[in-house]
Design a protein that fits this description.
The chain is of the alpha/beta class. The protein has helices at 24-30, 33-39, 54-58, 63-82, 97-105, 140-144, 150-155, 177-185, 193-198, 201-213, 244-255, 277-290; strands at 5-10, 12-13, 16-17, 48-49, 86-91, 114-119, 167-170, 189-191, 216-222, 260-266. It has one domain (5-290): Ureohydrolase domain (Arginase, Chain A, 3-Layer(aba) Sandwich). Strands 4-1-5-10-9-6-7-8 form an 8-stranded parallel beta sheet, with helices on both faces. It binds manganese (II) ion (MN).
Length: 298
């Protein structure tokens, strides 16, 4: 039994359009993702893409471009939700999580309580005053949680921060010291890599608890959760991690919960995937994940 799946792409990042992680969405579509999803029995309309206007392109630069793109992403997600679609986001990087969260908070209706499952090798929980690098890409969960950069959060369409209690961090293996402290202080739910691989009891109970509290759940996946040994062209490579198959199985379990309304895969750097190995691994993960859509979890 299939679902209506709306693919939403975001091909902009801090470097501009279509390079690095922003090259991933187009490459996944060219590799036949839409056709594969239809073959699984899903109804898949033509993908929709974030497109900045020429005025926006002209002012595009710095962190503001992330906010502009986030606003567009929010509207695309909101529209697709109103049509009853499950959202499959193919996004340049983790900053895109803000626009997806915004779209879910706004639809259907508005002011929905949205939970976040954040699957990433990193915490992305730095604020400008804890970040060792100053990179915005290390902050999106902190922004979503209301700890910093409120303008960016608002421009991305978010009506309210995601509550600490409604955030699950899964599979982190590379954390900065102050970030680790903040995750503990804010009492975010943390799942280990093994919980994902084994679909362990902690994963199942954390998801069930979250799902029972919120109106909708967003599952965000930075593809650097994958082992760089099998997927070197994904995110910010860090030793360890999952195979595409392990990731796909964990995601299939998650999306079989009907509160899960959106799944994004981000930072596939197609332009450095010389042998196409990462593409294969990412496609495997996505198609395993979507095989979990449409059924009800027992
Ligand atoms: Mn990330």
């Amino acid at each position: 039994m299939g679902r209506k799946i709306q693919i939403v792409t975001l091909s902009y990042n801090m470097q501009g359009k279509g390079t690095g992680g922003a090259s991933g969405p187009g490459a996944l579509l060219r590799a036949g993702l839409v056709e594969e999803l239809r073959r699984q029995g899903h109804e898949v309309p033509e993908p929709v893409s974030v497109q900045l206007s020429s005025e926006e392109e002209a002012q595009y630069g710095g962190w503001n471009r992330v906010a502009l793109a986030g606003g567009h992403l929010c509207r695309l997600v909101k529209n697709a939700r109103e049509e009853g679609s499950f959202i499959l986001g193919l996004l340049a990087d983790c900053n895109g999580c803000l626009g997806v969260l915004g779209g879910l908070q706004n639809s259907p209706g508005e002011g929905l309580r949205v939970g976040l499952v954040y699957v990433d090798a990193h915490g992305d929980y730095n604020t400008p005053d804890t970040s060792p690098s100053g990179m915005l890409g290390g902050m999106p969960v902190a922004v979503a949680a209301g700890k910093c950069l409120p303008r960016l959060r608002g421009r991305s369409g978010m009506l309210t921060p995601v509550l600490f209690s409604d955030i699950i961090m899964a599979g982190m293996r590379d954390l900065d010291e102050l970030e680790k402290e903040a995750i503990a202080e804010d009492k975010l739910t943390v799942l280990r890599e093994d919980d994902l691989i084994e679909l362990g009891p902690d994963l199942k109970s954390a998801l069930a608890d979250l799902s029972s509290r919120v109106d909708a759940v967003y599952v965000h996946v930075d593809l650097d959760i994958l082992d760089p040994g099998v997927a070197p062209a994904a995110g910010l490579p860090s030793p360890g991690g999952l195979t595409g198959e392990q990731l796909g199985r964990a995601l299939a379990y998650m999306v079989s919960d009907e509160k899960v309304s959106a799944l994004s895969l981000v930072s596939y750097r197609a332009d450095s995937d010389e042998d196409g190995r990462t593409l294969k691994e990412v496609m495997k993960a996505i198609l395993l994940a979507t095989s979990g859509l449409g059924g009800k979890r027992g």
